[in-house]
Amino acid sequence: MVSLRKTVFGVVVAAIGLSALTSAQAAEEVNVYSLRQSYLIEPMFKRFTEETGIRVNTLFSQNGLVERIKHEGRNTPADLLLTVDIGRIQDAVDADIAQPIESAVLEANIPAQFRDENKLWVGMTTRARVLYTSFDRVAPDAITTYESLADPKWEGRICVRSAMHVYNIALIASMIAHHGEEYTKTWLTAVKDNLARKPQGGDTDQIEAVSQGVCDVAIGNSYYYGKMLDDPNKAPAAKQVRIVFPNQGDRGTHVNISGVALMKHAPNKANAIKLIEFLSGDEAQHMYADINFEYPVKPGVAWSDRVRSWGRFTHDELALNVVAANRVAAIRLIDEVGFNE
Ligand code: FE
Fold it and tell me: How far is the CA of 20 from the centre of ligand 1 (A)?
């Protein structure tokens, strides 16, 4: 066990570029394990270091971070875990690696909807789960709600990635919260019957499928549209597709978060809280949302030009804790209706 700990610790030290993690150095730094890619977070960390003198060490990995922190136990260098989607955040909480974040700054900056009721996580940016429709084949107001995805007029015309992906589980969990399980099961069955093809690929693939005429309506997260428009190879496809924010006439569009959790054994807890508070402030909120075409969680922070060009929208105010609580039921319904089969 001792050698395993040493090995794991050694790997982490090497990965975050430190020769040694002495207590003297630890007083002026904070260690972040991130599922978010470095280019999305480094600019804000650089500003934080400029303002506070606290160095930020990051370890990026697309998977296995929760398990890693769990294995590192009390010896973990991780102070913070940055991840995306309420489902993945909930997985971290369920693994018992987080501790409550006590901060009046966060309570002032971040709406309660985007904070955990037990303070074990906070949202940092939001993303809308929107509809993408063909400019050529779908009239602007032909579909305006998630509920209408079940309308028989869309038979053979809808594309979506696996319903078991965390983004779709959260959307379906929100449908359960608003309409109950019985309605949602009927809705999900009808949406499945309207699919143009078996669920496959990622969100970008669905937007491309609309541009190629494979389907007329797709479901995807908002920032993928921004990424495509920014990529000369993908912009022509994105320009054939309209972004639609559903349910503007009632509860608003379903939104999810990228978020952060403070680790239970964080060696630099005070610095970690300073960093989260910095990230919740006006300057970092604008930068953070801008880099990935997301939205700031803090109300009143200016949106980037790109997302502003898609229009203002009303978002669903359902607490993400409620979304999280309905995830198990959502997974069961997806399975029961055989959505991905
Ligand atoms: Fe994504």
Answer: 34
